[in-house]
Design brief:
The protein is mainly alpha-helical and 142 residues long. It has five helices and three strands; from the N terminus they run ααβααββα. The protein is globular. The protein starts with 13 loop residues before the first helix and ends with a helix.
Length: 142
């Protein structure tokens, strides 16, 4: 190729911008949740289980929008903290996850920190940004 590639439009890549924003948002939540001994990924797993009740690992991964392998790593950490219980499912092949009393207690203790992070991030991105983020997280892109 003799002509120079014009990549100027790539500096506004939405994928890169969303990944950077996601890391910054995650760090903001993690910073405020750290004194309670958990990360936002763990908090969201516990909240999902409290709200939905026991779920198989596959169901939980689907509801959270994460890969099963990623979820399994996070579950191992919160299981070792005794925040969840993992038992064999009804068919023997699946495993069911439920939140423990200790898991409920850590969510209750950390909820104000989560709310503070939520308000901070919402203020940074504004109401329309928050709405767009929620809409995008629920939609399927082609």
């Amino acid at each position: 190729m003799t002509a120079e590639l014009d990549l100027s439009e790539c500096s506004d890549c939405l994928c890169l911008a969303s990944r950077r924003a996601a890391r910054r948002i995650t760090r903001a939540f993690d910073r405020l949740l750290r004194p309670h001994g958990l990360r936002v990924t763990q908090f969201t797993i516990l909240v999902m289980l409290i709200r939905r009740g026991p779920l198989t690992i596959g169901e939980l991964a689907d509801k959270l929008g994460v890969e099963r392998t990623t979820l399994s790593r996070n579950l191992a950490l919160i299981e070792s903290a005794s925040w969840v219980r993992i038992k064999s499912g009804e068919d023997g092949r699946s495993r069911a996850v439920s939140v423990s009393a200790k898991g409920r207690a850590v969510v209750k203790a950390s909820l104000d920190a989560w709310r503070k992070a939520q308000r901070s991030v919402a203020a940074a991105i504004g109401p329309s940004g928050a709405d767009a983020l929620r809409t995008l997280s629920r939609s399927k892109l082609r």
